[in-house]
Amino acid sequence: MLIVALDPPTGLDAFKWISTRLRLLEGIVSGFKIGLPALLRLGIDRVREIVKTYSSKDLLLIADLKLADVGFVMKLSAEVISYAGFNAIIAHSFIGVEGALEVLAQRCRELGLRLITVVSMTHPAASKMFDPILEQLINIAKEVGSWGIVVPATRPNVIRRARQLVGSEIKILAPGVGAQGATPGEAICSGADYEIVGRSITYSEDPYRAALQILSEQRERVARCRG
Ligand code: BMP
């Protein structure tokens, strides 16, 4: 129920930084999310070297590109992401279905990539920009057959609403735990399936211990809310 976001700090060897954390954490977490900072710094072939090692394992390997383009271009991006060994990709819901997400969703099905769409975000402006149209964004996510949606752990009320709207079919992935203020387990108690944690684990002196601590807090909280 824990996904680790790997966003390497500028100035360090990104390849080594990511590889070390994957190796340390692969046995205790549900998956990893790698985004633009790593992809831009390393390029797809070096990212592939890292990701391919883990492709055969039972891990979610998410490419966080937050795609928001016309279908044809997103389709090309999905092909690159699949080549690198990822098994999931993130796109924005707000771009809509026709000519955009329907094209991406079709290519993802062919490639065996899980499609995750963003329906709200953790930053303060998101409550003005995304939440008023949450239902519409979720309907888009459902229409294209998204495997999962991104909903902010920082706003548990949005998670509760999203869970009511998607039912039990679609996974809810909730970033914002730790560095952005949400506490471990709170999003799961509100209806999320996974919590996404970056810096509280990856920037810690001891990422393994930090992850164990978050997992234990998550378990305690969930045990309490599920009674
Ligand atoms: P951190 O725990 O270090 O704040 O990292 C959060 C991760 O979740 C980052 O990789 C970020 O891109 C991602 N994320 C987010 O913080 N808010 C969102 O609304 C959506 C995200 O994907």
UniProtKB/TrEMBL annotation:
Q: Which domain of life is it from?
A: Archaea
* Entry-linked Pfam families: OMPdecase (PF00215)
What is the top EC class of this enzyme, as a single word? lyase
Q: Where is the active site?
A: D64, K66, D69
Entry's SUPFAM superfamilies? Answer: Ribulose-phoshate binding barrel (SSF51366)
State the EC number(s): 4.1.1.23
Q: In which pathway does it act?
A: Pyrimidine metabolism; UMP biosynthesis via de novo pathway; UMP from orotate: step 2/2
Q: Where would I find the Orotidine 5'-phosphate decarboxylase domain in this sequence?
A: 1-214
The UniProt GO MF terms for this protein read: orotidine-5'-phosphate decarboxylase activity
Q: Which GO terms describe its cellular component?
A: cytosol
- Alphabetically ordered keywords of this record: Decarboxylase, Lyase, Pyrimidine biosynthesis
Q: Where along this sequence does the record place binding of substrate?
A: D7, K33, T122, G198, R199
Its BP terms in the Gene Ontology are: 'de novo' pyrimidine nucleobase biosynthetic process; 'de novo' UMP biosynthetic process
Q: Which PANTHER family match?
A: OROTIDINE 5'-PHOSPHATE DECARBOXYLASE
Q: Under what name is this protein listed? A: Orotidine 5'-phosphate decarboxylase
